[in-house]
Amino acid sequence: MAYNKVINATQRTFERTMTYDMYTDPKVLEKEMDLIFSKSWQLVGHVSQVEKAGAFFTADVMGEPIIVIRGTDEVLRAFYNVCPHRATKLEKNEAGKKKILQCMYHGWTFKTDGSLNRAPNFRGEDAACVQDACLRPVRMEVLESLIFVNLDDNATPLAESYGDFFDQLSKFEFLSELKRTHRKTRIIKANWKAFIDNYLECDHCHIAHPSFIDTLDMKDYQITMCENYSIQGTVVKPDKQYGEVDLNEAEMQGGTFFWLWPNLMLTIYPGPGNMASIEMIPIDHETTLAVYTYYFREDSLEKLSQEEKDLMTFAEEVRAEDIELVELEQIGFRSRAFNKGRYASSEQAIVQFHEMVLEALDE
Ligand code: FES
Ligand SMILES: [Fe+2]
After folding, report:
1. Residues contacting residue 40 through CB under 8 Å, at least 6 positions apart
2. Looking at residues 277-294, what average pLDDT do you find?
3. Please, how many CA atoms are within 13 Å of residue 360, restricted to the half-sphere of its CB?
4. Which of 15, 39, 234, 358 is 20 to 30 A from 33 via CA?
5. Which residue, judged by its Cα, is nearest atom 3 of ligand 1?
6. Which segments cross the bilayer (predicted)?
7. How far apart are CA 43 and CA 35, in angstroms?
8. Parallel, antiparallel, or unpaired: how do β-strands 146-150 and 179-188 relate?
9. Could you give the C-alpha distances from 68 to 59, 136, 237, in angstroms and in order?
10. In the predicted structure, residue 247 carries a pLDDT above the cut 60
C-alpha cells in the first residue's frame, strides 16, 4: 500500500466518493472476500483467553473455522479447526481446556501441537497412509496481547503490516494488564464499509453524539492517517476528568481511536485502563456482524467497577447512535437518487480507506 507514515491531507484531491454499488453489489463483496479479507490480519482473540496449557478458543475467520490453542509445551498455535480425515469441524466448543482434541466423526485424536495422536479406524497397512495427517496450521501472530490470524500463508508479518501502529499502542502501558472482559455481537443492516466510513470522521459527532462531545474536547480533535491505519482522538474536557479515580497519566490522556485496515477498530477511552475492539465482519453485501470486545483489568462483567461500567454504557450509547446512522445510509445507497457522495476536507481518512479498497480490488 502506498501510505507511508503520516499522510498530508492536502495531497488528496478526491471530491466524489466511490460509487454506491460498492455498498450494494454482492459481486463486490465476493471480490473483497477474495482480495481483502483472505489476505489481511484479523483479530481473533486475546492472550488472557489462553493462558494455561491446553486452553483453547475457536473462531470463525471469514467462514474458516479456526482453533487457537496453548500446547502442553506452553506454545501458542493456530490451526484450521478441520479434521484431516474427512473435513469434519474438529472442536465444537467456543472455548475450553484439553490435552487431546478428538473428532466426533471417526474418533481421530490430535495432540495440542496439531500432530495426529490416534486414528482408530486406520489399522495395519492403513496406518502408513495417515502418518503425516496433522492439523493444518494457520498464520498467527501476537502483539500487545492481541492474537491475529491471517489466511494468507505469504502475508507480510503483522508488525510490518501497520507501520508504527504497535509502537503507538505500546505507549498505553496498562494494556499489558488488561484481560478480555466481555464480548457481544450485533447484526447491522448495512455494508461493512459503511460503518468504517462512519468511524473515520467525527463531523457527525456534533450532531449524533451529544454525550461524546460533552465529554471530549472537540476543539483539539485530530485525525492522522498512517501506513495502513489511522488514529484519531482528543483530550477530555478539564471539567469532565475522572478526578476521584487513581489513574496513571496514560489513562488520563483522552480518547484514542484507531482504525486498522481493513475492518478493525480499537478504542481507548479516558478513564480506568480500558480498550475495546470492534470488528466489522461481512455476512452479506448489506449485512454485517459487529463484534465488540471489551478489555479491562477484570476478566468478567461482574467484577467491573462503577467507572468501568459507566464507560461501557457510554461507548455503547455512542455505538447505537452510529448504527442507526449507517442503517439509514444503506437505504440511500440502494436508492437511484444518487450514485456517489462527496468528501469534506475533514474526511480524508475515509478517502484513505476508499483508496485502499479500490487498490486492493484493482478498480
Ligand atoms: S472426519 Fe474426523 S475422524 Fe473422520
Ligand atoms: Fe459516530
Report:
1. 150, 152, 155, 261, 262, 263
2. 97
3. 22
4. 15
5. 106
6. none
7. 18
8. unpaired
9. 8, 12, 41
10. no
Confidence (pLDDT) at 4 = 39
The contacts of residue 214 (CB under 8 Å, 6+ apart) are: 237, 240
Question: Contact, 120 vs 106, CB < 8 A?
Answer: yes
297-352 pLDDT tens trace:
999 999 999 989 999 998 999 999 999 999 999 999 999 999 999 999 899 999 99
pLDDT band at 9 (very low <50, low <70, confident <90, very high): very low
The tens digit of pLDDT for each residue in 128-171 reads 888 889 999 999 999 999 999 999 999 999 999 999 999 999 98
> How many A from CA of 80 to the centre of ligand 2?
35
Domains located in the chain, CATH noted:
9-41+165-361 (3.90.380.10), 43-142 (2.102.10.10)
CA dist 145 and 131 (Å) reads 35
Q: Would you place residue 5 in the very low, low, confident or very high pLDDT band (cuts 50, 70, 90)?
A: very low
CA of 17 to the centre of ligand 1 (A): 49
Q: Are the C-beta atoms of 183 and 291 separated by less than 8 Å?
A: yes
Protein residue with its CA nearest to atom 4 in ligand 1: 106
Mean pLDDT rounded to a whole number for the chain? 91
**pLDDT classification of 187: cutoffs 50, 70, 90:** very high
